[in-house]
Amino acid sequence: MRALELVRGVTQGSRRDISRAITILEDELPGSGELYAEIYRRGGKAFVLGVAGPPGAGKSTLINCLIHELRSRGHKVGVVAVDPTSPFTGGALLGDRIRMVDHSLDEGVYIRSMASRGSRGGLSRNARKAICVLDAANYDVIILETVGIGQTEVDIVRVAQATIVIIMPEMGDSVQAMKAGLMEIGDIFVVNKADLEGADRAALEIGQFARGKDGGRPKVLKTVAKTCQGVPELASAVEGLMANAKAKRATRGREEVVDEVREALNGKVESAFALGVVSHPGWEALLKKVAERKVDPDSAAEVMMKDLAEGGRASPRNPARRGR
């Protein structure tokens, strides 16, 4: 199928074409570049909501409730759930789609699980492209759920226009547990499992110490995901963020380009090291000099980056130490 035909199906809401487009982009199959270019031109309207929090906080169950509430308010909802990568298949463990199975017959909801593939910040490299497909398919709210690896989830802010941070009362000192990252990225903080002891204390701590990205105090809500208690208030808060999100869209394009360049460079470096002396025979000698402390790591890295940029072979030269 040609890219334009597939894009037409995506924009018309064909679930089959949406799934196929995401797979092509995720696996970088032939034609993915042309497809992404066409898809990208047709997006830019959706509100992307990140959902972060530690494992066991009830993110997926709460998202399930939030989908019901947003649908009742007329929103078309897409979900990209970044799951841990299976150590055996390299694919995603589809726990999130299992929990959200009651939405499977709703044409206004599309849920996709993606493998994290080792992403240290909890986001799949291609999650942004999946979001782009759902945006082009006219889902006006797209929820991005991370794998739940706690403090290192902060890179969610580079993709989402706003972020919900979910915690649970039994975390103990909740502020201490989150202060290294999550306390600084939330636009809304949710104390889930609020029927448990310690919920009021956790909400009070967050209200006192959390700061939003604009320096102000973020909204703090309490929910019970198993009964959807507190979810209407959460949905109203989300709609409030949607109304203020347009101003943030201008900066997202720059962030997307920076991320693509970073990923391209990372892939190039990893491939070069995987090939080792076959592709870059001079690197072995250079690395040996670093181990012998004859060359500093920064200077060695400069040589390697230059070799990669030039596309040539490294020579076993001794780089200058730049006055060190």
Describe this structure in words.
This protein is α/β, with parallel strands linked by helices and 324 residues long. The protein folds into three domains: 42 residues, no CATH class; 201 residues, P-loop containing nucleotide triphosphate hydrolases (Rossmann fold, 3-Layer(aba) Sandwich), CATH 3.40.50.300; 58 residues, no CATH class. Helices cover 44% and strands 12% of the residues. The protein is built from twelve helices and seven strands. Strands 3-2-4-1-5-6-7 form a seven-stranded parallel beta sheet, with helices on both faces. Strand 6, helix 8 and strand 7 form a beta-alpha-beta unit. Helix 1 crosses helix 2, helix 3 crosses helix 6 and helix 4 crosses helix 9. The protein is globular. The protein starts with a helix and ends in a 14-residue tail after the last helix.
Widest beta sheet: strand line-up: 3-2-4-1-5-6-7
Indicate the CATH architecture of the largest domain: 3-Layer(aba) Sandwich
Overall structural domain count: 3
DSSP strand count: 7
Within CATH, the superfamily of the largest domain carries the name P-loop containing nucleotide triphosphate hydrolases
Strand percentage: 5-15%
End-to-end Cα distance, whole Å, is 57 Å
What is the approximate shape? Answer: globular
- Secondary-structure element order, as H and E? HHHEHEHEHEEHEHEHHHH
Radius of gyration: 22 Å
| CATH fold name of the largest domain | Rossmann fold
Mind telling me the CATH class of the largest domain?
A: Alpha Beta
